[in-house]
Amino acid sequence: MDHEIIEQVLYDPTGSTRRDQLRRITMTYALGSGEGEWMKTSDKVNAALREALVANHAVGLLAGTYDEALTITRVSDYLLHLLDYSLEEFREISGVSLGTLFGKKLPLFSDRERFASFQGRAEAVLAMKGGLPLKTSLYKMDTVREDGERIWILSVQVNWSDQNLEVVTHTLHAGFWYTDYDEEGKFKGIVYNQAFRQMLGFQDESDFPNTWEAWADLVHPADAPRVFRNVENVAWGRMPRFEMDYRVKDASGVYHWFRDNAEAIRRQDGTPRRMAGVFFNIDEEKRLEQKQLRSDAFHRAFTAANLSEYYVDLNEGTFTSLKEDDSLFAEWETDSSWKELVKIYIDRFVCEEDRTAMALLYSSEYLLRQIRLGNREFCLDCRIRIGEDIRWVRNTLIYDEGDDGSTGLLVFVRDITEAKKEAERIEELTHKKDEIDLLL
Q: CA geometry: angle at 355 spanning 354 and 357, to 5°?
């Protein structure tokens, strides 16, 4: 084993020499009875300890047996330092059981068969002294002692940059991922954080490994070509970054909408070194968006015959046009108050025989009186003249009261000419039928 590789990542709380650091970091306390003594290990076990350490870049170590409790038999001094525990405090808090140490919420560390079949990296949260949750990266491997017993070894790394990122992504309800590329720009691997897995209903690396396929196989077939093309385009510099919405299947087989934002870090020659992304669940946003689209479609269908639509602020005497297309009174809307616009409507468009009734309907005195009586909706039909054509319209006024105490009116002027004609035709047919019935 190259000692330089090990030494360059050591933590030195005591100012000891590098050789002392190496010895200290790879030594572990025995968790049997007594005050705790340094572990005397065979070359084979010591090599496995060092391999686990190097694979996870300066870490604490745990080791133990495959009994029912997954008993912890060894703990490194450095891990105790990370968690701020004395040896006795660690014994008490962990019960020298891996399941107790990590908690029952992580079946990987309490299910012996599952833990035994797992090798490689995982993520978990450990509690520091005082209850502070500490996000850790783990590397697990097995070895065999001189007596032939199989034992497990866990290296435990704390990366405060990752810890800070976890806080940010948790606050944003987001997951995090990154990909690495070799010197030629070829894909080397991908890593997902625990939040990413949990958003899809998975628990850890045992059911959602750090592989491209773990995620790619879950992307909706209709979205997959676009998603994979964008990832490739960003990796090779054809796009500076991507922000895309697509569907991913969760552990139960249900598709959800996610928004993925990513950008690449490049070498001087332009080849990608790493791409990192943030992954958000946007199901609720998409649901509201679809609801709004349906509402807009319904509104367009329902209001296609509306000549004008307004929201009137009764406190300010101002109005806002709600109609997407130009309304019947568009040329006067910009420079008129609501009172002035009503006067233009009645004087220039409403047929003379209906003007008195319409002036009453739109008068503030009448409306306020009706509102005090508990009435909230007012409706009156009238005839208007548009050029040489006489049209029937329905004037609908709906009282609106906001949570902030504001009061207003929703006003719709709807062309009902064809509906009137149809109603008259049906009435005429009904009248003729009654006459025939009398004759018979």
A: 70
Contact 108, 204 (CB under 8 A): yes
- Cβ–Cβ under 8 Å, residues 66 and 154: no
Separation CA 241–CA 267 (nearest Å): 16
Question: What's the token pair of residue 431?
Answer: 């009248």
CA–CA separation, 139 and 160 (whole Å): 17
Q: What distance in Å separates the CA atoms of residue 50 and residue 61, rounded to the nearest whole number? A: 10
Beta bridge partners of 411: 310, 397
Residue type at position 100:
T
Separation of alpha carbons 342 and 347, rounded Å? 9
* Angle between helical axes of 364-372 and 355-362 (0-180°, round to 10): 60
User: How confident is the model over 24-81, as pLDDT tens digits?
Assistant: 444 455 555 444 444 455 677 766 766 665 555 556 888 899 998 899 988 887 788 7
Phi, psi of 194 (to 5 degrees): -65, -35
The pair of three-digit structure tokens given for residue 142, joined into one six-digit string: 């097995």
Name the token pair of 246.
Answer: 């697509």
Q: How many Å is the Cα radius of gyration of the chain? A: 37
From 352, 335, 329, select the one nearest 412 (Cα to Cα). 329
Quote the CA–CA distance of 313 and 400 in Å, as a whole number.
9
Give CA angle at 185 (280, 1), nearest 5°: 95
In degrees to the nearest 10, what's the CA dihedral of 242, 243, 246, 248?
80
Instruction: Name the phi and psi angles at 35, rounded to 5.
Output: -80, -10
Amino acid at 283: D
- The candidate with the shortest Cα–Cα distance to 192, out of 123, 144, 255, 257, is 123
pLDDT tens sequence across 357-384: 999 999 989 998 988 888 889 999 999 9
Q: What is the pTM of this model?
A: 0.45
What is the C-alpha separation between 280 and 258, in angstroms, rounded?
5
Q: How far is CA 291 from CA 285, 286, 296, 299, in A?
A: 10, 8, 8, 12
In the sheet that holds 306-313, the strands lie side by side as: 318-321, 306-313, 407-415, 389-401, 377-386
Helix, strand or coil for residue 329?
Answer: coil
Helix H or strand E encompassing 117: helix 112-117
Q: Do 324 and 426 meet the contact criterion of CB atoms below 8 Å apart?
A: no
Check the CA dihedral 315-316-322-326 and report its sign: positive
Q: Write out the two tokens for 183.
A: 């010197």
